[in-house]
Amino acid sequence: MKKLIITFTIASAIFLTNCNNSEKESSLKDMKMTELNLADKGIPVTVKAPEGAKVKEGMFSGEFGGIRMYDYEIVKNSFALEVSMDDAEELRTAKEITEDAAEAAQTEEGFAGFVKKEPDGFIYKIKTDDYEEYKFYHVLIKNNRAIEFNEGLKLFTGFNLNDIKILYDIAKNAE
After folding, report:
1. What letter would DSSP give residue 159?
2. pLDDT tens digit sequence for 138-155
3. Phi, psi of 161 (to 5 degrees)
4. Are 62 and 142 contained in the same domain?
């Protein structure tokens, strides 16, 4: 029985060490970035993305109430950035859009506060009994359209603060 416990303990330690190493290897700051233009997808913006990233159509792409919605997720390993825009002229300012998005974020289950707030975006924390993660929102007004950015879906885990800051910075520097 003692051998079984020792073997299990060693195997668990090796597994956890390997998991931690793979997380470090897939860190966003270590990824080689390149310019990615989404104009051919209907969104007039260029963003930084990892080399070889895939652009996948998001679940909100399509026509709703006569307005065309463009929604794409840029993904590679632990990198996931969602970029969306509807094809209707935007009459609100970036600040007004951001205030509305901030109100919506505050209703999210586990909302624990804003880490950073700016007129065109914010980073916020979600904390529950089971997990802690960070999310962000950023809006860019271009050609009278609101181009919105947020973290994409990351399966089985959320984003840590460092990775969210990188994604937020990418969104802020989109052109």
Report:
1. B
2. 999 999 999 999 999 887
3. -65, -40
4. yes
Does 110 share its domain with 142?
Answer: yes
Say if residue 72 is in the same domain as residue 89.
Answer: yes
Count, residues in the chain: 175
List CB contacts of 120: < 8 A, sequence separation 6 or more.
Answer: 94, 95, 98, 138, 139, 140, 172
CA atoms of 171 and 174, how far apart (whole Å): 5
Question: In which residue are the tokens 């914010």 written?
Answer: 122
Domain of residue 14: give its range.
Answer: 1-30
CB distance 137 to 121 below 8 Å: yes
Is the pLDDT at 17 greater than 50? The verdict is: no
**In this structure, what CATH number is given to the domain that contains residue 151?**
3.40.1000
The DSSP letter of residue 32 is P
pTM comes to: 0.83
The amino acid at residue 62 is: G
